[in-house]
Amino acid sequence: MIGFIGAGSIGGAVITGLVKNGFNSDDIIVKGGRSNRTEILSDQLGFQVVKKVKQLAETDIIFIAVGADALNSVLKELKEIAAGKLIVAFTGSASVTHLKQVLGDVKVAHAIPNTPVKVGAGFTGITYSDDFTAEDKKKIGSVLGYTGQLVEVPENELGILGTVAGCSPAFLDVFIEALSDAGVKHGLSRKLAYDAAIGMAIGASKLAKQSDLNVSALKDEVTSPGGSTIRGVAALEEYGFRNAVIKAVDAAENE
Ligand SMILES: NC(=O)c1ccc[n+]([C@@H]2O[C@H](COP(=O)([O-])OP(=O)(O)OC[C@H]3O[C@@H](n4cnc5c(N)ncnc54)[C@H](OP(=O)(O)O)[C@@H]3O)[C@@H](O)[C@H]2O)c1
């Protein structure tokens, strides 16, 4: 049995990814916030909703998916029932050290999922406290594995990993929208332009993942001398595409 505290954007995305990809919703209990967001999601997915954190006492793993403002009050309530459980916080500002400080001798982890978890294609970075055993990590993997890839990293890399994998879906959405605008400008219908741009992003990502070649070599393969693709790549460089992407990550990293 697993529990969630908070089912907003990321909590809801993880729960959706779990259930849509085969995790039994009877094994999920969720404590929601003040709005009826959790009840609405429960109507769609069929998990149990509870009003108090202590009603998660029967669970083995609890995921905390509240924002920074609610974290400490949630941890205070959670302390009463946390013994023996694995606690995983998605809250950006949480840290393994802070979670341990507040919860005491409890195994804790800090994880940053991205929104594609919703369709089982997520990329989640995770840092475990030192007392996590291989068996404990397997347990977390057996749950979050339903939502996509799970990669263990040192906590000092979790923030930038969260930006590269977590903010970038929005960056890619902007790229897809821009590519579609260009298609429309040159005469495609909006629907066909979006279908083409999204289909390309899925296909090119799949190729990059499955190919033995790195993305630079894949680009080299499709840029014939003097051809249209290399002219497009040169225009991207001329207008600072690569630098714009790096600056976007810089901006996300620097508050
Ligand atoms: N969004 C992302 O892509 C993403 C990715 C990785 C990590 N994160 C991190 O995850 C955290 C949450 O982000 P979010 O985007 O999911 O925010 P969000 O959409 O505002 O969701 C937070 C949820 O927490 C609920 N909540 C607040 N206090 C609660 C309490 N005492 N008990 C139970 N539920 C409570 C709220 O419920 P009500 O609205 O019903 O009050 C809200 O639905 C942030 O720290 C963020 O940095 C987000």
UniProtKB/TrEMBL annotation:
The pathway entry for this protein reads as:
Amino-acid biosynthesis; L-proline biosynthesis; L-proline from L-glutamate 5-semialdehyde: step 1/1
The entry's keywords: Amino-acid biosynthesis, Cytoplasm, NADP, Oxidoreductase, Proline biosynthesis
GO-annotated biological processes: L-proline biosynthetic process
Q: Name one GO molecular function term.
A: pyrroline-5-carboxylate reductase activity
Q: Name one GO cellular component term.
A: cytoplasm
A Pfam family reported for this protein in Swiss-Prot or TrEMBL: P5CR_dimer
Q: What's its catalytic activity?
A: L-proline + NAD(+) = (S)-1-pyrroline-5-carboxylate + NADH + 2 H(+); L-proline + NADP(+) = (S)-1-pyrroline-5-carboxylate + NADPH + 2 H(+)
Which domain of life, per UniProt?
Bacteria
Q: Where in the cell is it found?
A: Cytoplasm
Question: Coiled-coil intervals in this record?
Answer: none
* InterPro entries, per database record: 6-PGluconate_DH-like_C_sf, NAD(P)-bd_dom_sf, P5C_Rdtase_cat_N, P5CR_dimer, Pyrroline-COOH_reductase
What sequence ranges are listed for the domain Pyrroline-5-carboxylate reductase dimerisation? 155-254
This enzyme's EC code(s): 1.5.1.2
Q: What is its main location?
A: cytoplasm
**Segments forming domain Pyrroline-5-carboxylate reductase catalytic N-terminal:** 2-89
User: Would the keyword Nucleotide-binding turn up in this protein's UniProt record?
Assistant: no
In terms of NCBIfam families, this protein maps to: proC
Name the family the entry cites. Belongs to the pyrroline-5-carboxylate reductase family.
Q: What does this protein do?
A: Catalyzes the reduction of 1-pyrroline-5-carboxylate (PCA) to L-proline.
Q: What is this protein called?
A: Pyrroline-5-carboxylate reductase
Q: Which organism is it from?
A: Companilactobacillus heilongjiangensis
